[in-house]
Amino acid sequence: MTNTTSFPKGFLWGGAIAANQVEGAWNVDGKGLSVADMATYKPNVDNKDFAAHMHVTLQSIKEASEDKSDKWYPKRRGVDFYHHYKEDLALFAEMGFKTLRLSIAWTRLFPTGEELEPNEKGIAFYENVFKEMHRLGIEPIVTLSHYEMPLALAVKYNGWVERRVIDDFVRFANVCFDRFGKYVKYWLTFNEIDSIHRHPFTTAGIIQEKSAEGQEAQDIYQALHHQFVASALVTKDAHEKIPGSQVGCMLTKLMTYPLTCAPEDVELTLKKNLENNFYADVQVKGEYPARIEKDLENRGIQIKMEEGDRKTLKQYTVDFVSFSYYMSMAESADPNAERTPGNTVLGVKNPHLPSTDWGWQIDPKGLKISLIELYDRYQVPLMIVENGMGAVDTVEDGKIHDPYRIDYFKAHFQQMKEAIDEGVDLIAYTSWGPIDLVSAGTSQMSKRYGFIYVDADDEGNGTYNRLKKDSFHWYKEVIETNGASL
Ligand code: BG6
């Protein structure tokens, strides 16, 4: 143990949650249905098969919309943060959180996305949350869109494929700035904007059956373009409306290594990593990289742009880059190379790394490499806004011993420290799911990330009581000493 710390004074330590994975209260106080309310818990599907878990069809959406219960829809229940927020925020404050990343459910404010005026009851909920955070000295980092767009927009317009959704989103974002701007300085526009390719419905409301045959990729890039434009427009609005506000993009950092040093492996790996950077390239540098434009041309994909779009992207770029980091993977030219799942990706297995029970490869060094690479590439402050390990926890005599989680975090924090020592401007770290929540990928409760345990199972049984795990006390000390206890 050393007594030194590299973390800068004022470093924002905290945790991250998303409305649809914690709030519950899916049909309360005027909230409309969101795409997250369609996600079913599938007990008989292999937990490593994220694609099957996240798959929806027109028929499954119809059935889910008609089903008014939450039995098979855990995201409708979350962990009932809607009614427990004071208790949960108090626990975060007890751990010493300087910040909490959370999202605003679009459908609490605009139930179908097309209303012209917001639902005041939805506004009141978030106002209360922000007031309480302010009282506790917890700085909010707010995601405007985290996998929870109005279902009505998905069904009517195939989500972000239609340009008009930009206007609906800009209206929603502006209400957030007007009503919550006095509490919120840090904003993120789209959670893991790159994930549109991996789960288009969750990310952008795209129902694949609605795309004409052969047009699936075209629709995805069109929707992505609309999100880029919307992100730029609301960045401008936030800056104009909230003095001192900072807006960031948010990407899934999917670090990929070549399985071998064979040039073919290295080339494929380079392409993967460049593709992963494309989204931040647009949002930080304000333009589509030439290689992406060429690739789209080669694939016959033509993004419809309106006059002024390129100028908008160039003019209203983000202030910082935020990203999630859970795992890394390898790449190989050998089609038979062994594969393993990661965060909604199937990568080549790296023989040097251990994996979680869900197959995600644990790689703390990959976090340092990501930090160095991202800072060098973009030269703007960085935030790690998701990181953590999904694991099964057991309660014994009211206690949860989770040394595996402590080991995971400790190893990642050490790498963050090294990156800061090498000059990276890292300003915040929010662990994913500081309180257990419903998994985005598999809708399980039993895939736990928290420092705080929630007594609920995959089918919603339980008291929903909160219990502190061993890692709660450990993280508290890390924050208290600003990393010197590591
Ligand atoms: C990120 C998402 O990709 O990964 C979160 O932004 C999600 O919403 C997290 O919960 C972990 O994934 P999962 O599938 O384990 O919940």
UniProtKB/TrEMBL annotation:
Family matches, as InterPro entries: GH, GH_1_N_CS, Glyco_hydro_1
Origin superkingdom: Bacteria
PROSITE patterns documented for this protein: GLYCOSYL_HYDROL_F1_2
Gene Ontology cellular-component terms listed: cytosol
GO terms assigned for molecular function: beta-glucosidase activity
Hydrolase as UniProt keyword: yes
Keywords: Glycosidase, Hydrolase
Pfam families: Glyco_hydro_1
Gene Ontology biological process terms in this record: carbohydrate catabolic process
PANTHER family: 6-PHOSPHO-BETA-GLUCOSIDASE ASCB-RELATED, GLYCOSYL HYDROLASE
UniProt record similarity statement: Belongs to the glycosyl hydrolase 1 family.
Protein name, per record: 6-phospho-beta-glucosidase
Species of the source: Desemzia incerta
